[in-house]
Amino acid sequence: MELLSVSLGAYYGDFTVAAASENLTASQGKTLNVLRRGPAAMRALATILTCDASNMTGIVDRLEKRGLVRREPSPTDRRVKNVVLTAEGERVIDVIRGKMHATRAGLDRLSDEERDTLYALLERAFTSRPATLRPSA
């Protein structure tokens, strides 16, 4: 568990600094990162980010005010609003990822085979789905 704690601490520290450089909180940056995978309902975002739904509303409000996300009706349930990343939001999360110098430097010290092994192990440890090909960086 100590290895995981150190690893996550380094990653989230790097992410927090990169998000702050774009005038975002870590929670706002994480929200953009989650939305990079596709639209999500507010309740789903709150669950994924392990925060209260009322906090999620404030986070999305601030991101929406900056033009990084927009709300739109769910195509399957008109009572639900999905949060969608805008083109500017995509740009900002890409900039944040690009500024994660410590994380990139650490991964760059690994060979392609070591990165593939690390990805497979992390996927096996933290997901219930079978291992798939590692997504491109």
From TrEMBL:
InterPro entries: HTH_MarR-typ (IPR000835), MarR/SlyA-like (IPR039422), Tscrpt_reg_MarR-type_CS (IPR023187), WH-like_DNA-bd_sf (IPR036388), WH_DNA-bd_sf (IPR036390). Pfam families: MarR. It comes from the Bacteria. Transmembrane segments: none annotated. Keywords: DNA-binding, Transcription, Transcription regulation. GO terms for biological process: response to stress. GO terms for molecular function: DNA binding; DNA-binding transcription factor activity. Signal peptide: none annotated. Residues 1-127 form the HTH marR-type domain. This is MarR family transcriptional regulator. It comes from Streptomyces populi. The lineage of its organism: Bacteria, Bacillati, Actinomycetota, Actinomycetes, Kitasatosporales.
